[in-house]
Write a structure and sequence with these properties.
Layout lengths: L3 E10 L2 E11 L4 E5 L6 H9 L6 E6 L2 E2 L10 E4 L11 H11 L4 H14 L15 H13 L5 E5 L7 H18 L2 E6 L2 H7 L2 E6 L2 E7 H6 L4 H6 L4 E4 H5 L4 H7 L5 E4 L5 E2 L5 E12 L4 E6 L5 E5 L8 E6 L4 E4 L2
Parallel strand pairs: 3-8, 3-9, 6-7, 7-8
Antiparallel strand pairs: 1-2, 1-4, 4-5, 9-10, 11-12, 12-18, 13-17, 14-15, 14-17, 15-16
Helix pairs in contact: 2-3, 2-4, 3-4, 4-5
Bound molecules: adenosine-5'-triphosphate (ATP).
Length: about 325
């Protein structure tokens, strides 16, 4: 196992920066997710670490060795992609053993390692099946086993759960995390799904337009987003400009909220419909969406539309008092 250190990494296509001046470190044995919207540069970053894309600038160290000039097959990395990319004419066991055969590992050892890895991803007994005889989740477990059986220095996962339906996605993500932890394999995980990133990661890096917007532990990133972008992307917070708020509530209230930034974030689940709040105003229920565990309401307010989650249904068109307690607001750079 090895740590990964990325310094000043950039990739330019013509005048366009797909990735710009990226710095991050993944300690040995940790899992770091790169999270962000489509086109923010996550995959380009992962492919530079894998060696499929040559950086325009910057360095990538794996286990203390600079690898930018090292070809992909010599970087000793396990890779799992969104498409399982299994060989259709090989059984699960043959797919998993392929990398070992290429490395000329003796046959009996291949058999032993393949069986052990099949059991680890809970596919014991299915080694003789062909990919077409396996479900999507099982195929992705074969892909994971194939990446792990070579005992890579690090594991790179690019949207590995995107092709699975919602239930399976949760199941496989728990398994990936368990296997990753039990082996202690350093992992870079790329996803656009915030709940996936929060649930599997030791660290989350939120990317925006080629740059790393914020890096921290999953709880840090969620509870202390630094910018409006991060607050909105993780958990869909309402971003409220303090200037807009100053027009509706007393100046002292606004001053109490002024931290490092010129805006605040309030999460839909902490926005409240009642009076007796630190900050409150008149609002109108513009829309109501029943989502099973809660209603999501759209409030029309003097500071603009706000989203709120509540277990109390409210008739559309009704007038209410709404707002928040200051403890529930985080200071943001808008
Ligand atoms: N070969 C290329 N030539 C030109 N531009 C590219 C190339 N590859 C990627 N880009 C651009 O670089 C940016 C980052 O792409 P990248 O695939 O890394 O994003 P991403 O965050 O992984 O998105 P997604 O989640 O949609 O895969 C995008 O604007 C993309 O259009």
């Amino acid at each position: 196992m090895a740590d990964i250190a990325i310094r000043g990494l950039s990739k330019h296509y013509g005048g366009m920066a797909a990735v710009e001046d990226l710095h991050l470190a993944i300690p040995e044995g940790a899992l770091l997710s790169l999270l962000g919207p489509s086109g923010c540069g996550k995959t380009t970053t992962l492919r530079m670490v894998a060696g499929f894309i040559e950086p325009t600038r910057g360095s990538i160290d794996i286990g203390g060795t600079e690898v930018v000039r090292v070809p992909p097959h010599r970087r000793d990395l396990g890779l799992v992609f969104q498409s399982y990319a299994l060989f259709p004419h090989m059984t699960a066991a043959e797919n998993i053993g392929f990398g070992l055969r290429m490395r000329r590992v003796p046959k009996p050892e291949i058999g032993e390692r393949v069986t052990r890895t099949l059991n680890m991803v809970r596919l014991g007994g299915l080694g003789d099946r062909y990919p077409r005889q396996l479900s999507g989740g099982q195929q992705q477990r074969v892909a994971l086993a194939r990446a792990l059986v070579i005992e890579p220095r690090a594991l790179l996962l690019d949207e590995p759960l995107s092709n699975l339906d919602a239930n399976l996605r949760e199941e496989v993500r728990v398994e990936i995390r368990e296997v990753q932890k039990s082996l202690g394999v350093t992992t870079l995980f790329v996803t656009h799904d915030q709940s996936e990133a929060l649930s599997v990661s030791d660290y989350v890096g939120v990317m925006r337009a080629g740059r790393l917007e914020q890096l921290g532990t999953a709880t840090d990133i969620y509870q202390k987003p630094r910018t409006g972008f991060v607050a909105t992307f993780l958990g869909g917070a309402n971003v409220i400009k303090l200037d807009a708020l100053a027009a509706v509530v007393p100046a002292a209230v606004v001053e109490a909220l002024r931290g490092q930034g010129n805006a605040i974030g309030v999460r839909p689940e902490t926005l409240a419909i009642r009076s007796g709040l630190d900050v409150e105003f008149d609002a109108r229920i513009e829309a109501s969406d029943f989502l099973g565990a809660y209603w999501e309401l759209l409030l029309g307010t003097p500071i603009g539309p706000l989203k709120i989650r509540t277990n109390q249904p409210q008739p559309v068109g009704s007038s209410v008092r709404a707002g928040w307690m200051n403890n529930d607001a985080v200071s943001l750079e808008a």
